[in-house]
Amino acid sequence: MPNSEFRIPKLFTLVGPTAVGKTEIALKLAREFLRIEHAGEIVSADSRTIYRGMDIATAKPTRAQQALAPHHLLDLVEPDEELTLADYQQRAFAAIDAIFARGKIPFLVGGTGLYVRAVVEGYRIPRVPPNMTRRAELEQIPAPELYARLKTLDPEIAETILPNNTRRMIRALEVIEATGEKMSEQQTRHPPPYAISQIGLSLPRPLLYERVDARIEQMIALGLEDEVRGLVARGYGFDLPSMTSLGYREMGAYVRGEISLDEAIALLKSNTRKFIRHQANWFRPGDAQIHWFDLSVQNYDDIRAFVASQLE
User: Fold this and answer.
1) For the chain, what are the domain ranges?
2) The pTM is what?
């Protein structure tokens, strides 16, 4: 767990669905407080931007954006390597501690609800080592059957996992089988010893979906196809968890000749909408712990004023 002495014991989180504008707002806040008092530093809470070489479909902050403010927990592992939730949490606490020690403001930014909660709520995560033999056996089971099994053994943890996220389902089953206990019951909470202000960004679904469509078209223009082909050329197979995530799964089907490019783009847009609906299970507008800003009627100035008030 993190240390208990900080010069500025205030952590801000910036959460919300994919494409709502978290990166842009976080960068503005980090730069704003650089001019006023203390520079902000951004700690990523995204389970896909941890992979090196996977930049476009993950909407990873560009090098130009990263130059505007320090970023942490990007490019941590290769696409064929694993980063457990416990590993992420440990690195996040270390990054936040270091930011506080420098007298700066940490902003935990991302759309992976499990990562955010692991930090904010201080999950005590069971450290069960990977069982590669058992994983290989579970990988032979179709995803719907895995999900049904997980819902039977641990309905609460199943609610937090997409039915097509085979990697997370297998990990949950692995922990349950190894310990004989529900994973949800093992994740006891011990909140970290610093004040936390949570900021949520939202948009009406039609506006958010328009942003999603525009972002995906931009990904195609930036060279998503070339990025996927380059990853394959480097030896990363489409069966890897990283390569089955949004953007890589759909473009992979096109690269393999299974669907057309137009079909891949349409599928990616559809799957992103489904993912956004899943994210709503983590970031609920009714959550009183999150101060929500509807970006269709509020703007950056409102968010900046809130942050400033929390630092007084």
Assistant:
1) 10-125+188-204+283-310, 132-186, 205-279
2) 0.84
pLDDT score recorded for residue 38: 62
pLDDT digits (tens, 9 = 90+) for 267-307: 999 999 999 998 988 888 888 899 999 999 999 999 999 99
d(CA 305, CA 312): 11
In CATH, the number for domain 205-279 is 1.10.287.890
CATH match for 10-125+188-204+283-310 among 3.30.70.1400, 3.30.460.10, 3.40.50.300, 1.20.272.10: 3.40.50.300
Percent of the chain that is helix, strand, coil (3-state, to 5):
50, 10, 40
Distance in angstroms (rounded) separating the CA atoms of residues 98 and 78 = 24
Distance CA(163)–CA(30), nearest Å, equals: 36
Q: Which helix (H) or strand (E) holds 114?
A: helix 113-120
For residues 1 and 15, give the distance between their C-alpha atoms in angstroms, rounded to a whole number.
Answer: 22
- Cα distances (Å, whole numbers) of residue 77 to 88, 153, 297, 309: 11, 31, 39, 37
Q: How far apart are CA 49 and CA 54, in angstroms?
A: 7
